[in-house]
Write a structure and sequence with these properties.
This protein is of the alpha+beta class. It is about 40% helix and about 20% strand.
Length: about 290
């Protein structure tokens, strides 16, 4: 549903435009509450006359939202009772579900795909309303698998098994390289500096400069195997994109085949994921006072 906007109907009558997704029963309830409302073809919205129209519509809209959410929560609660998820990682409360797992990037990414799921920074749990239960069930197998994989004992076993192995050395080399915040670039096709772009290795980043330092081919092989390079590739410096920058970034057009090899314009789906990550990072930074 959309909020109202103070407006007029073109005849200087005070009122507000009211827009919300079409649903026959919702329209009937709206017309019963606002019998003087008229549809405006130019605005593709309802016009509610009156100086207090915007305030009255906002109150009605809030009631509709509450009733819709209450009904959806009741259906989700019934679905949980009929076919519950039984797991030590999921708590059932009267008003919502709580997800408590070891930290996992996969868990975070999966839970973010569940509508209305939110992170409680004070209690360190994910809260999921019952209306999102079916969505949570679709993601649950991957969530639980990742949670089990990141239990302290399981992580310790993997560390001991990989200690001194080629896999461990390669992982450490990649982590060290990432901390340097550099990326191999084609000097003839440099990305726009100061603007978020998509890379195959680090996702969406903002390039801040390029001093022309030649790239070491050995480093490319261990940390940038999927990056097309040439003998004259140079290092570029980057930083993570801020939420404000990601919000302002226009996505590539659907079906666009423009790809600069090493970097490209991000898609809308890639931007959505990056915006969620940036928003979470900024909330965490704000809560810790960093």
């Amino acid at each position: 549903m959309s909020d109202s906007k103070t407006s007029s109907n073109g005849k200087d009558r005070p009122g507000a435009t009211a827009a919300f997704p079409y649903d026959r029963m919702t329209v009937e309830r709206f017309r019963k509450t606002f019998p003087r409302a008229r549809w405006n073809d130019d605005l593709k919205a309802w016009f509610v006359p009156g100086k207090t129209a915007a305030r009255r519509f906002d109150r009605w809209l809030e009631r509709e939202r509450f009733q819709t959410e209450t009904h959806a929560d009741a259906k989700g609660r019934d679905a949980f009772v009929f076919d519950p998820i039984v797991s030590k990682y999921l708590r059932r409360l009267e008003s919502h579900l709580e997800l408590v797992t070891p930290y996992s990037r996969t868990v975070v990414d999966e839970v973010r795909e569940v509508p209305f799921a939110s992170w409680d920074a004070d209690r360190h749990v994910w809260t999921v309303p019952y209306r999102s239960y079916e969505a949570l069930r679709r993601h649950w197998s991957r969530i639980e698998e990742a949670a089990k994989r990141n239990e302290p004992d399981e992580r310790k076993k993997r560390r001991e098994a990989n200690r001194g192995s080629e896999k461990e050395r390669a992982a450490r080399a990649r982590a060290t390289e990432r901390r340097r915040r550099r990326y191999p670039l084609d000097p003839e096709n440099l990305p726009p500096f100061g603007r978020p772009v998509m890379t195959s290795t680090y996702g969406i980043v903002v390039f801040v400069g390029c001093d022309g330092e030649p790239v070491d081919p050995d480093i490319i092989g261990t940390s940038y195997g999927d990056v097309p390079i040439s003998s004259d590739s140079v290092w570029g410096q980057w930083r993570p994109a801020t939420l404000a920058e990601l919000v302002k970034t226009w996505p590539s057009r659907p079906g666009s085949k423009i790809d600069h090899g090493i970097w490209r314009q991000p898609t809308i789906d890639e931007l959505r994921v990056a915006r969620k990550t940036a928003a979470s990072r900024e909330r965490q930074r704000s809560s810790t006072g960093a």
